[in-house]
Amino acid sequence: MSTIAATDNDFEEKVVNNALPVLVDFWAPWCIDPSSRISVTDRETVIASSLNKGHSVLSFSNGLDNDIVGYSKTVTDGGHCKEITTEAGRSIKVTDDHLLFAEGGWKKAQDLKKGEKIIAFPAVDPMSLEGNLSFRILSSQDVRGHITSRMKNRDYLAELNNKGLLPLSFGSEKLPLLAKLMGSLFTDGNLYFQESNNYREISFALGDKKDAERVRNDLAALGFRCHLGERVTEGEIQGRKFSSHTHRVKCLSTSLWLLFKALGVPVGNKTNQDYKIPRWIFKAPTLIKREFLAGFLGGDGPKLLMHESKRKNKRPYNSLTINDLEFYKRSDLVKSGIDFAEQLKKLFSDFGVEITSIFSEDAPYTRKDGSRTIIIHLGFRQNFENGYNLATKIGYAYCHNKQQKSLLVGEFLRRVITRRTLWIKLYKNVIKYAKVGGQTPVQIAKKFGISEGTAWGWLRLGRKATTPKHFEKFANWVKGAIAGLKDGLVWDVVLEIEKIYLPSIQRITVSNNHSFLANGFVVHNCGPCKIAGPILEEISEEHKDKLVVVKVNVDENPQSAAKYAVMSIPTVILFNKGSEVERQVGFSGKQAYEELIKKGI
């Protein structure tokens, strides 16, 4: 590396007193609105201003990747910036030179155009932990009540306490993970206990190895080790042979088993017993409810299916089908199953997801022990808003396949709903303007950019604002939305670019890929400063013995930046014999730097 770094302490030595001409690159890490939401996983975000060095985040390098924050700082030297809004309703506030990944590659915010495609990451809507966070769910005494005389190790409470799992309140850092794992245990997971040998096990059955690894990682985050395995099951039901392949996660910690039991997870075969959703979940912050439901939906959740419906002599239109949520109960426990379904209905309603029917039906076969089972059904309202809320406000945990497919449907519905919202807003503005404007429908149509027929229908015929059902076919949209992308990323489309002012900005660098996800957008972490770096390295090599290239981080060395009135980054200043000769503000390419150098050498 031929360039050298300078600080406030040695700037005079390396620059002012240097016998050779010195090209100083005043740079800083990248800049976004401090209130932006940064993706740390496919379900979790944090506010940009809360990021610290060493924080793990999602980044982009051909596809999604994990990376580590190398630098993060809120500074008050904001200024004129851009707010980018897309057709899907996303928005982000960034400095003018901030790079977003567009169809042709990295592009400055100020150079983006309306209608241009940029990469976005559909994810569950961000949510913060809010509410009565001091409310205590469990104490050591509550867990102690589940310890039996046959449990030889009496250090369970100490272990849970040391891992930050007792006492447990709504504000506990690890509660969202516990709630998500609990949701899974209520479906395809199990708290197993065998009386004969005093054996306890926490197990999860997943359909994909990646989902099993996610469960393992979450258990590790709680402080517990587990084992991964696979199981192939073959059988026959009513003459039909079947084969299933599942990935298993097994944890043998009695401490964690006790914690889940104390939190209200049923022990043993859930089909054969009466149980309820724990009362504390209904009192919990919305984030905790969401994580519980996401874990549940990952196991028993319905699929979201978009298809085209056809009507005689009319154009086809998009239609959404949401399958029923189903689970099994022994036939004599039908009331228990219906009661549990009613509890789920109540939780779903907190997220705008409407259940329109709950009913039971006989299962089509008899179990090996001779008992009969019934299937409990929860039917969802079949409309776009319900599907959108299910996909984007709750989502699916530990089922990557359902999560990705539902988010793709949710992304499409986001566009449709956003379009409807904008159209209704336009309709209201037209009606409001017409009442005071005194203009004809033709004049109003021209002013608002709508057709004369639409204006006439709204103003003279009393028609309401509706968008056609055949607006954009899902199958066609998907082909274009995911073209050339993977890992659930899609192309969004720029709708508006507005000039704004940000009084403060967040500067972030990411160690390896130099990119991260902010408000669902793939953004570069250091923009022009990072692009200029390799070019200045070339210049330093090409002009060695004639020129010294020095780099100064303005965040870490504010005195030098203030002394030379560096108001924007990157700023490159050429010094000769200690005096400023010329400066270049912003990045303009290698040729511009070469022209600058000619004036001092």
List the helices and strands and how they pair.
Blueprint: E1 4-5, H1 11-16, E2 22-27, E3 30-32, E4 37-39, E5 45-47, E6 56-61, E7 63-75, E8 79-86, E9 91-95, E10 99-102, E11 105-108, E12 117-120, E13 136-138, H2 140-144, H3 156-162, E14 168-169, H4 175-185, E15 189-194, E16 199-206, H5 209-222, E17 227-237, E18 240-251, H6 254-263, H7 279-283, H8 286-300, E19 304-311, E20 314-322, E21 325-330, H9 334-349, E22 355-366, E23 372-380, H10 384-394, H11 400-437, H12 441-448, H13 452-459, H14 474-481, E24 490-502, E25 505-510, E26 515-518, E27 521-524, H15 527-542, E28 548-553, H16 558-563, E29 571-576, E30 579-585, H17 590-598
Parallel strand pairs: 1-28, 2-28
Antiparallel strand pairs: 2-29, 3-25, 4-5, 6-7, 7-25, 8-9, 8-24, 10-11, 12-24, 13-14, 15-16, 16-18, 17-18, 19-20, 21-23, 22-23, 26-27, 29-30
Summary tags:
Endonuclease - Pi-scei, Chain A, domain 1, 601 residues, 32% helix, single chain, 5-stranded mixed β-sheet, alpha+beta, Glutaredoxin, 32% strand, Endonuclease I-creI, 4 domains
Write a structural description.
With about 600 residues, this protein is α+β, with helices and mostly antiparallel strands. It has four domains: about 5-30 and about 530-600, Glutaredoxin; about 30-120 and about 500-525, Endonuclease - Pi-scei, Chain A, domain 1 (Beta Complex), CATH 2.170.16; about 135-400, Homing endonucleases (Endonuclease I-creI, Roll); about 400-480, no CATH class. It has 17 helices and 30 strands. The chain has a five-stranded mixed β-sheet. Strands 3-25-7-6 form a four-stranded antiparallel β-sheet, with no helix packed on it. The protein has a four-stranded antiparallel β-sheet with strand order 9-8-24-12, with no helix packed on it. Helix 3 crosses helix 6 (about 255-265), helix 4 (about 175-185) packs parallel to helix 8 and helix 12 crosses helix 13 (about 450-460). The radius of gyration is 30 Å and the shape is globular.
